[in-house]
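Data availability (excerpt). The following record was deposited with the supplementary files.
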Amino acid sequence: MRLGAYDFRPGGLPTLITLVLLAFLIGLGVWQLDRAEQKRSLLAQWQQRRDAPPQALESVLSGNAERFTRVVARGKFDDDHQFLLDNRIQNNRPGFHVLTPLKLANGDGAILVNRGWVPMGEGRSDLPEVPAPEGAVRVVGGLASSPQTGIRMGPADRGDQSWPKIVQHVEPKRIRKQLGYPVRSQVIRLDPDASGGFQRDWGASVPFGPERHLGYAFQWFALAATLLVIYVAVNIKRRKDKHGIPHGE
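Predicted structure:
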């Protein structure tokens, strides 16, 4: 192919490889743009539902419970059987999230309430004091799925009989067996301004916002553009006249 004073003659195999890599890189960029849009939608839902008035827990659970819905529940805390969710970092300090079972007043089992973050003591045997309010309580917070962790290494806890239990991740079936009564698989994240909790700064449960996905998308598109420039530069040559002198010189 002649392009003015230049010849563009790429080989078949390099062209095929370049096209495959271009499609792959552009696909990754488009995927990151889609992920960014999903994060925007998720954050918008969280903002909308965070500011909405709370609904009765029973009515929410009887239907299709939506993520981040604010609920109100009544019952009594099981102060004797609490869980400390390990490896929760806040302000670069290790600590725990305190998960306390709330026995529902209507007798329909219990639900875990995440009452917030507490710092770790000097060691694993130095557990923090996490007293729960006594008597009948009214709990208001956001309904969330059970807290998750990354790669699960081993069982959720050591399997001993001590309380509170340090757990690496939440397994609803295991918790029901340990408590001896029904427990919902969801968790209520106690409102930041509610009493009876610890440090709380709840977000939308996303590891990072849409901006990082946009940055990743830019990187993939930039790589695609660089690949295209290299492909053209390697395969384009200035034509020479019959004396071997490049055209234009």
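Summary of structural features: The CA atoms of residues 173 and 185 lie 8 Å apart.
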